[in-house]
Task: inverse folding
């Protein structure tokens, strides 16, 4: 049967006119024969939604914790110390009705080094590339300077924004209303939550709210992909996470971890050699500890985490080296992928 539309196409397009038309059954047969999925069977259900969501907020409010809970696995490292996340990490949640591509970002803090400047750029730049913004704050304190500055930039970005006032498990119920009002006054929010992202049920409610604000569209990543970071990068992050957990306050910020070797041995064990860089000789001594005891603890914790993440046995070897003031050194920053832009920030 020929429809009026088809007749028109035949008149206006020679290439279309020359192509034989296949009915869906013939198309499926051809697809089976050639081994590809026919376009028709991309099987995107009616009303499917997808898009990018930046997770932004002051340092230490729980952004990476939220992302890991949403994924039910660790892709972004978490610690009680500030400035844990250093670069953007994509984390993909695929559901039957939608795909959310989260962008975890470094927390907003007062920049003191060139590394900090890179981290802030990473966070602020994310606002312009996404469909929805998730603005996370913590219920345990009233809004601070960094919350206000970020709220200002979020307003300028003009995107649907969801406010998550996290760590509600840490506050007395009597201050909840006042705290919520203080944060709600920072901007206009499509939805807001006073919650704790440690509980997966709470996180799933936030996911539902996000999906409602995503544009219609097909999945952007294959369903089985959960992140854009490689196993090698994740291993380096997990060594840094172990160091953040075990070391005292001032040392962790000076740490960078680089993977020197990452290979599977014939017996199936993954051999990983990594170097922990610090900024001073005194820090090197601390990281190694008396008789190497501290390094052993870091290595043991990191190995367990890497094994859990990769699902295989791991043999981890660690070295410690000094790169004087690397957080201020553009050559080292660039080499390690913290590319600081020349653009002047406000
Ligand atoms: N009590 C409580 N602690 C939480 C909650 N969410 C996160 N935390 C803790 O807060 C600390 C910081 O969490 P992260 O997820 O690393 O915070 P972040 O916002 O990603 O931090 P940066 O990467 O430094 O910006 C960790 O010790 C978490 O366990 C919460 O709902 N309640
Ligand atoms: Mg983080």
Result:
């Amino acid at each position: 049967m020929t429809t009026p539309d088809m007749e028109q196409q035949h008149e206006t397009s020679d290439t279309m006119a020359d192509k034989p038309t296949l009915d869906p059954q013939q198309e499926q047969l051809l697809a089976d024969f050639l081994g590809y999925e026919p376009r028709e069977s991309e099987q995107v259900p009616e009303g499917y939604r997808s898009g990018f969501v930046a997770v932004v907020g002051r340092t230490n409010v729980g952004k990476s914790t939220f992302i890991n809970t949403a994924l039910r696995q660790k892709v972004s490292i978490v610690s009680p110390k500030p400035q844990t996340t250093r670069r953007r990490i994509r984390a993909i949640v695929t559901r039957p009705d939608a795909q959310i591509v989260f962008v975890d970002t470094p927390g907003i803090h007062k920049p003191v080094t060139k590394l900090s400047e890179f981290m802030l750029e990473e966070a602020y730049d994310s606002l312009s590339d996404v469909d929805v913004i998730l603005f996370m704050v913590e219920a345990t304190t009233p809004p601070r300077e960094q919350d206000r500055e970020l709220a200002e930039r979020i307003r300028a970005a003009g995107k649907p924004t969801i406010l998550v006032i996290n760590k509600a498990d840490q506050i007395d119920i009597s201050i909840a209303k006042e705290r919520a009002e203080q944060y709600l006054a920072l901007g206009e929010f499509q939805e807001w939550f006073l919650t704790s992202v440690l509980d997966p049920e709470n996180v799933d409610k936030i996911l539902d709210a996000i999906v409602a604000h995503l544009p219609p569209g097909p999945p952007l990543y294959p369903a089985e992909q959960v992140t854009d970071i490689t196993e090698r990068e994740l291993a380096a992050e997990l060594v840094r996470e172990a160091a953040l957990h075990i070391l005292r306050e001032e040392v962790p910020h000076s740490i960078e971890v680089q993977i020197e070797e990452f290979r599977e041995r014939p017996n199936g064990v993954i051999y990983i050699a990594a170097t922990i860089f610090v900024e001073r000789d005194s820090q090197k001594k601390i990281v190694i500890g008396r008789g190497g005891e501290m390094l052993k603890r870091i290595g043991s914790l990191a190995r367990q985490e890497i094994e859990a993440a990769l699902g295989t046995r791991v043999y981890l070897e660690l070295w410690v080296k000094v790169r004087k003031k690397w957080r201020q050194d553009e050559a080292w920053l660039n080499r390690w992928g913290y590319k600081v832009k020349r653009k002047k920030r406000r």
User: Anything to note?
Assistant: The two ends are 64 Å apart (CA to CA). The first helix runs from residue 4 to 12.
